[in-house]
Amino acid sequence: MAIASAPPELTLESATTQDLYRELLSRIGEDPTRDGLLGTPERMEKSMAYLTRGYTMDVTEVLHNALFDVDYDEMVIVKDIEFYSMCEHHLLPFFGKAHVAYVPKGKVIGLSKVARLVDVFARRLQVQERLTRQVADAIEEAIQPQGVAVIMEASHLCMMMRGVEKQHSATVTSAMLGVFKTQLQTRNEFLSLVRRGRD
């Protein structure tokens, strides 16, 4: 009678993503073979792929067919764009709202694409400061406007669930380019319009 050979030893090179999640569950003291966790490695793999899908998204493709030649040179604002991201330091979520403005110079972006652009960069491992600047830089590169402004307000679970455990703290970051940086009146108009309706 043939004796069944032992399964090959798992190495980092041969391990699947699900193998790694299974190992992680073991290392935190769980039993990955128990009923409630049997499907967890597969769910974790799918979840992480979705939460970090920004790595597979391309700004040029997202904006494709949504850049329009328009004779308009007043401020365009898309505010209260909800976003969700993952802190690259602890792999915990942070989430909030983005406010994006630009002053066109012959070209505008389809409004829904501004929100999609935020998602391209939010759905990656991030720090909020970089995320804010990446959105501003992408708009500047796409349409070369007179200026771009981005403000992001977010709650970070790495501050709420662990560490200092401050439940009501919020982090606000901004990026001001072009006329938003050089012209106080333009910047103040943007800030005023973002705050409108909150008082």
TrEMBL record:
Reactions catalysed: GTP + H2O = 7,8-dihydroneopterin 3'-triphosphate + formate + H(+)
Name recorded for this polypeptide: GTP cyclohydrolase 1
Recorded metabolic or biological pathway in which this protein acts: Cofactor biosynthesis; 7,8-dihydroneopterin triphosphate biosynthesis; 7,8-dihydroneopterin triphosphate from GTP: step 1/1
The keyword Chaperone appears for this protein: no
Annotated keywords: GTP-binding, Hydrolase, Metal-binding, Nucleotide-binding, One-carbon metabolism, Zinc
Zinc found in the keyword field: yes
Alphabetized GO MF terms: GTP binding; GTP cyclohydrolase I activity; zinc ion binding
E.C. designation(s): 3.5.4.16
Family matches, as InterPro entries: GTP-CH-I_C/QueF, GTP-CH-I_N, GTP_CycHdrlase_I, GTP_CycHdrlase_I_CS, GTP_CycHdrlase_I_dom
Family in the record: Belongs to the GTP cyclohydrolase I family.
GO cellular component: cytoplasm
Record GO biological process: one-carbon metabolic process; tetrahydrobiopterin biosynthetic process; tetrahydrofolate biosynthetic process
UniProt subunit comment: Homopolymer.
Amino-acid positions noted as binding Zn(2+) in the UniProt annotation, renumbered to this chain: C87, H90, C158
PANTHER family to which the protein is assigned, alphabetical: GTP CYCLOHYDROLASE 1 (PTHR11109:SF7), GTP CYCLOHYDROLASE I (PTHR11109)
Domain of life: Bacteria
Domain GTP cyclohydrolase I: 20-194
Pfam families the UniProt entry points to: GTP_cyclohydroI (PF01227)
Broad class of enzyme this protein falls into: hydrolase
